[in-house]
Amino acid sequence: MDASNQEQQLFLQLDMGDELDPDQLDQLTRQLHREIFDHGIDEVDFVRGDDVPEGAKSAETVTWGALAISVLPTVVPQLIEFLKSWTMRGESRKVRIVSKVGDKSVELEYTPSGVDNQELKEMIAVLTSGMQEPSEPSADDQNQETE
């Protein structure tokens, strides 16, 4: 199956600093969940306990500020653009995006004030290329290596 047609799992982790209590963070996570769903991404779920991606700071933070999303690589640019506008709606909003494929993972953190449009395009390229399974070398590739 072509990697561009294969859904991949992304984990979003919200970082609002110390500004929100757990109830407020839960409410904001639910709002983001609803808005992502309204943007046509049907597979968006709340992350619970064992679903925590490697490298997450603590299960408690993830429970109150994390979403798991299944998307096609072709949808990632629209998702990132949406997250860009979402983070700009409030102060101190940051979103960490983790993509894990096999034993590889890509982690990006988006802060609106710290990333310009070119950097955002580069982040999308890194994220979508990190979502593709390494391909097996073809016979032509192997022949070129031995020449």
What report would you give on this structure?
This protein is α+β, with helices and mostly antiparallel strands and 147 residues long. It has one domain (3-146). The protein is built from 5 helices and 5 strands; from the N terminus they run E-H-E-H-E-H-E-E-H-H. It has helices at residues 22-38, 59-65, 76-87, 117-130, 139-146, and strands spanning 8-15, 44-46, 66-71, 94-101, 104-110. The chain has a 5-stranded antiparallel β-sheet. The chain is globular, with a radius of gyration of 17 Å. Mean pLDDT is 76; it is low at 141-147.
Gyration radius from CA atoms, angstroms: 17 Å
Low-confidence stretches: 141-147
Give the rounded overall mean pLDDT: 76
Kindly give the count of domains: 1
| DSSP E strands, number | 5
Shape: globular
SSE order in H/E notation?
A: EHEHEHEEHH
Report the sheet with the most strands, covering strand number, pairing sense and barrel closure.
5 strands, antiparallel
What labels would you give this structure?
alpha+beta, five-stranded antiparallel sheet, 5 helices, disordered C terminus
